[in-house]
């Protein structure tokens, strides 16, 4: 299997069909390759982690790295002994000790290997000349013990599905911020289609009914019925599938373990464990009720979202567009917090930047948004001394000034470049 996985040993090149199209994240990963630390690529299945590995291998070959000094192996195809694999590679291919040669090792779906973190740590510490690149369809560094075992030895890069800008590029559209309004109808049409694909590149060329089948069978079922049982001893993957369907029908579900457990005939501890499995395999996103004390926030009320709008539509095709938009921005902005007061005043998202400044965000997809629609946002801003808020709308584009001299910026969802610039300005504050 080791020889079939590395065709460049024989052909001196990576086959074109393995490399695909370059994405913006590639340059970030390539910049990490000269460093001693290993690179860990995490993300959902079918987001292009293997393709990025092949692109890195092609770049290494083009820069003069000897073909046999690059090893690729996917544990998604065959689960074997990591130490035996490396030993076979050193003896049969490199034909010298790894103490004496610089090689690059690419291990795909590494979470399938039992005790992988300790084996990788030993390999990293034993051979200072090697470079290791790992991938996994789970939050590898969140798995029990791995962050501690590998502390200081890695850089993690999260590989997301293609964003809306990348989707437009795939469709052959290049839009400047000055031309958003002119292209309003095109942007609205493509945004709706994009939400259906979830940004999965393989879906871009499929009709809608096959997109849904692809996401159910090629992503969700693979993770639920294959990946999770291989990593954790789980007795009922069908329950995980049932949970996903429940969450798809209740976007932003307030998680109450007792009542949900009663509905599913599960004890709260088992249900909590199942939710964590779905979270660690990146199928769901958990948000916490915001408090200035972050530790307090994470002990309070939670909301759950599926991690991708494509999953939601694959499981619940009738989901309203307004709810999909809320989920999309929660997912895209990787929001950790929402806000719900004791008086039931709610804000969809609360973002923090590195300077610990707060940006509350509401998603209101309605024909027109007025100041009277922003009561909860204004109350939050006043209580937490925020000078700026953001409301993502259907068409309203203006600035609302609050009585406290704060500014609530309203930007339509389809003005993605304007939104991007606004959010980068907030995230760039120090």
Could you walk me through the main structural features you see in this protein, from its secondary elements to its overall organization?
The strands form 2 sheets. This protein has a 9-stranded mixed beta sheet, with helices on both faces. The chain has 18 helices and 14 strands. It is an alpha/beta fold. The chain folds into 3 domains: 8-158, Rossmann fold, CATH 3.40.50.300; 164-340, no CATH class; 346-427, no CATH class. The protein has helices at 8-11, 16-19, 25-30, 49-62, 82-94, 116-126, 146-149, 164-170, 184-197, 208-231, 237-249, 257-264, 268-280, 294-297, 309-315, 321-332, 375-383, 416-427, and strands at residues 38-42, 70-74, 104-108, 131-136, 154-158, 253-254, 284-289, 302-306, 337-340, 346-352, 358-364, 388-393, 398-401, 407-412. α5 (82-94) links the parallel β2 and β3. The longest helix has 24 residues, at 208-231. The protein starts with 7 loop residues before the first helix and ends with a helix.
C-alpha Rg, in Å? Answer: 23 Å
Helix-strand category: alpha/beta
Strand content: 15-25%
Helix % is 40-55%
Strand order of the largest sheet: 6-8-7-9-10-11-12-14-13
Shape: globular
Number of helices: 18
Number of strands: 14
Oligomer: single chain
What summary fits the major beta sheet? 9 strands, mixed
Q: How far is it from the N-terminal to the C-terminal residue, by CA?
A: 50 Å
Mean pLDDT figure = 93
Number of domains: 3
Low-confidence stretches: none
């Amino acid at each position: 299997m080791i020889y079939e996985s590395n065709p460049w040993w024989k052909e001196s090149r990576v086959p074109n069909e393995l490399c695909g199209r370059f994405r913006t994240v590639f340059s970030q990963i390539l910049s990490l390759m000269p460093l001693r630390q290993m690179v860990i690529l995490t993300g959902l299945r079918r987001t292009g982690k293997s393709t990025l590995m092949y692109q890195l291998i092609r770049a290494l070959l083009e820069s003069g790295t000897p073909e046999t000094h690059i090893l690729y192996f996917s544990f998604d195809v065959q689960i074997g002994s990591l130490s035996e694999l490396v030993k076979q590679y050193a003896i049969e291919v490199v034909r010298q000790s790894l103490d004496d040669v610089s090689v690059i090792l690419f291990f795909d779906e590494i979470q399938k290997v039992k005790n992988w973190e300790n084996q990788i740590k030993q390999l990293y510490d034993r051979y200072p000349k090697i470079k290791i690149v790992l991938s996994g369809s789970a939050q590898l560094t969140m798995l029990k013990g791995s962050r501690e075992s590998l502390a200081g030895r890695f850089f993690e890069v999260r590989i997301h599905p293609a964003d809306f800008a990348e989707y437009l590029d795939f469709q052959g559209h290049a839009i400047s911020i000055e031309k958003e309004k002119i292209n309003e109808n095109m942007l609205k049409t493509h945004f709706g289609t994009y939400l259906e694909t979830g940004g999965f590149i393989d879906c871009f060329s499929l009709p809608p009914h096959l997109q849904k089948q692809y996401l159910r069978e090629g992503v969700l079922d693979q993770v639920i019925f294959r990946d999770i049982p291989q990593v954790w001893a789980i007795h009922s993957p069908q329950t995980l599938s049932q949970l996903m369907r429940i969450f798809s029908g209740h976007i932003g579900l307030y998680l109450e373990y007792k009542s949900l457990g009663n509905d599913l005939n599960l004890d709260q501890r088992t249900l909590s464990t199942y939710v964590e499995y779905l979270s660690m395999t990146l199928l769901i996103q958990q948000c916490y009720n915001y408090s200035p004390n972050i530790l307090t926030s994470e002990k309070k009320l939670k909301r759950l979202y599926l991690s991708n709008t494509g999953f939601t539509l694959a499981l619940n095709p009738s989901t309203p567009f307004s709810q999909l938009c809320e989920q999309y921005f929660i997912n895209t902005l990787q929001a950790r917090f929402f806000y719900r007061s004791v008086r039931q005043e709610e804000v969809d998202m609360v973002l923090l930047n590195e300077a610990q400044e707060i940006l509350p965000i509401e998603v209101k997809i309605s024909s027109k948004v007025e100041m009277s629609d922003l009561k909860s946002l204004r109350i939050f801003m006043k209580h937490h001394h925020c000078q700026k808020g953001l409301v993502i709308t259907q068409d309203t584009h203006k600035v609302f000034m609050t009585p406290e001299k704060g500014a609530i910026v309203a930007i339509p969802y389809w003005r993605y470049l304007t939104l991007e610039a606004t959010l980068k300005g907030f995230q760039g504050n120090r």
